[in-house]
Amino acid sequence: MKQTSSIISTYSADVFGVCSALYELGGLVVMHDASGCNSTYSTHDEPRWYTMDSMVYISALSEMEAVMGDDNKLIEDITEAAESLKPKFVAICGTPIPAMIGFDFEAVAKVLEDRLKIPVFGIPTSGMNTYVKGANMALSAFAERIPKVNVKKTIMPSMNILGLTPLDFSINGQAESICNFASSLDFDIISKWTMGTSFEDIEKSGSANINLVVSSTGLEVAKVLKKRFATPYVVGTPIEGIYNALLADTIKKVYTDPDFPDFVCKSNLPGEDIAVIGEAITSISLASSIELTCGKGVKVLCPTEIDKYYLRDKDKITPYEDDIRKELRNAKTIIADPLYKAICPDSAKFISLPSESFSGRIYRDEIPDLTSDFSYIKKYL
């Protein structure tokens, strides 16, 4: 029962991470499920739903089709939709039902690709992991298929921004602020994985000189682009103030010396009186910014998927509510989504930092743009 959350919410699921990551790229994304997931995604996990069109569908898997394994109906339905809508690619992602019946994503994708003559991705999500894993699965698969023909690095400094999704940065202007930060360093932006970018931009990603990973959803893409195009990367979310200066110096250093493997921009002061709960890269960047600005040690609790390599010694992976409760017992200040407040000790000061991936649209108007204004956090410390 440890995996059960009795009070707090859950993060957006892996299947929604796929849909969010691919939303703007002109593809047909199919959630293989009975029904219901599409309404949850559209109303709680996709802030662009009412302002930007995208081909996100559900397969409407019936009980009999699940029991008998009638994959042909799915293949025919996707074929008909693709021939009508003319998408640039097709992505099929899964939910708990196809995971339980052993649906073969790779085989169905191969059949459809042979038939449609466009890229088709089978992404075996199960609905049991967070959006971070789903987005990484989708985007790394996408990166593996970028054509390598005639790819040349740009002469002028250029960059891809990886991990730019509304589940981490909402639609409050922070994505634009991150791009402005990159532009202020005199880097041309080749692509933004994947807000405010196009399928064609993504195909040019191999020509960039460096990648900036601003959230965990961009880590696997960075590894693929490094393997395929020898593009070095820096990991860190721009946070206004001292941290932005440190991140800028790191980017310039790695640009001039690409032999740096995967430089993680972070501070690590002793002390755990302050706790930050959230996705790893943005939370560690925020913790580092607090340490550099205020001189106070900060511990990060990460409920979403992350390789321990990117964490500091005092940071913890805490996927379960019970784990988070234990880690918060001695915290004097807690920075987290408002839905975490119910499990925080009454003695601790609570600083609200809403996340679209956790509380959905409930507190969207209260999400700050820390890339351009760190004072929202600093004034409480």
Care to give the gist of this entry?
The chain is an alpha/beta fold and about 375 residues long. The chain has 16 helices and 14 strands. The chain has helices at about 15-20, 35-45, 65-70, 70-85, 95-100, 105-115, 130-145, 165-170, 175-185, 200-205, 220-230, 240-255, 280-295, 320-325, 355-360, 375-380, and strands spanning about 30, 55-60, 90-95, 120-125, 160, 190-195, 210-215, 235, 260-265, 275, 300, 315, 335, 350.
Describe this structure in words.
With 381 residues, this protein is of the alpha/beta class. It folds into 3 domains: 14-129, 3-Layer(aba) Sandwich (Rossmann fold); 158-264, Rossmann fold (3-Layer(aba) Sandwich), CATH 3.40.50.1980; 274-378, Rossmann fold (3-Layer(aba) Sandwich). Helix content is 39%, strand content 15%. The protein is built from 16 helices and 14 strands. The chain has helices at 14-22, 37-45, 63-68, 71-85, 96-101, 105-116, 131-144, 166-169, 174-184, 199-203, 219-229, 242-256, 280-294, 321-327, 356-359, 375-378; strands at residues 28-32, 55-58, 90-94, 120-123, 158-162, 188-193, 210-213, 233-235, 262-264, 274-277, 298-302, 316-317, 333-336, 349-352. The strands form 3 sheets. The protein has a 5-stranded parallel β-sheet, sandwiched between helices. Strands 12-11-10-13-14 form a 5-stranded parallel β-sheet, covered by helices on one side. Helix 12 (242-256) links the parallel strand 8 and strand 9 (262-264). The chain starts with 13 loop residues before the first helix and ends with a helix.
